Amino acid sequence: MGDDAAPGRMPGRARATTHGHLSHVALELFVSHGFDDTTMDDVADAAGVSRRTLFRYYPSKNDLPWGDFDGMLTSMREHLASMPSDLPLTDALRQAVLTFNEFPAEERDLHRERMRLLLTVPALLAHSTLRFTAWRQVVADFAAERMERPAEALEPQALAWACLGVCIAAYEQWLADDDGDLLRLLDAAFSWVGTGATVAATGGEDRV
């Protein structure tokens, strides 16, 4: 969700305004001033856009940390649909999750702060639940097609919840360790759920 536009452009330069640019500006303000103490007017001023323009991109302050989340979900649906049909379902989901958690090294710290906000700020938690529901539905729809089951059936929904849990567990580990590697943690978590949980349940080692 990177953006080449620099903060502080003049209001007339509307072509430089993107979801990514506005989200980055907002994140920097949230980190430096706190989420609760930053207003939409503050974000609009820092981004060099009108309040009306900001609300056209983001209906509420709670949406800003997510960036172009709807666009990401569309891309994820398309990415999953392009997966080879002979690729096992769980492998396809793992690859998709890893792909959509890749980001440039220079955005690592900002992405960490984004996830810290989404997972810890009380004012954002309820909104995050709605976003996670939309994310889970993308997974459930893909799983349902592969399983030839309705998307609301137990199996696709259970898998979607499991994938979300794996991602949140990896993110929490990453946020707790400044030197952590998010992609490694996600990959390890998916691997453990696929094999380690069975080993652990039978009394074997559960290390990843």
UniProtKB/TrEMBL annotation:
Q: Which residues form the HTH tetR-type domain?
A: 16-76
Keyword annotations: DNA-binding, Transcription, Transcription regulation
DNA-binding residues: 39-58
Q: Which residues form a coiled coil?
A: none
Q: What SUPFAM superfamilies does the database record attribute to this sequence?
A: Homeodomain-like
Q: What is this protein called?
A: Mycofactocin system transcriptional regulator
Please verify whether the record's keywords include Cell wall biogenesis/degradation. no
Keyword Cytoplasm recorded: no
- Note the Pfam families from the entry: TetR_C_14 (PF17754), TetR_N (PF00440)
Q: Tell me where on the tree of life, at the top rank, the source sits.
A: Bacteria
Taxonomic path: Bacteria, Bacillati, Actinomycetota, Actinomycetes, Micrococcales
Give the species this sequence originates from: Microbacterium thalassium
Recorded GO terms, molecular function?
Answer: DNA-binding transcription factor activity; transcription cis-regulatory region binding
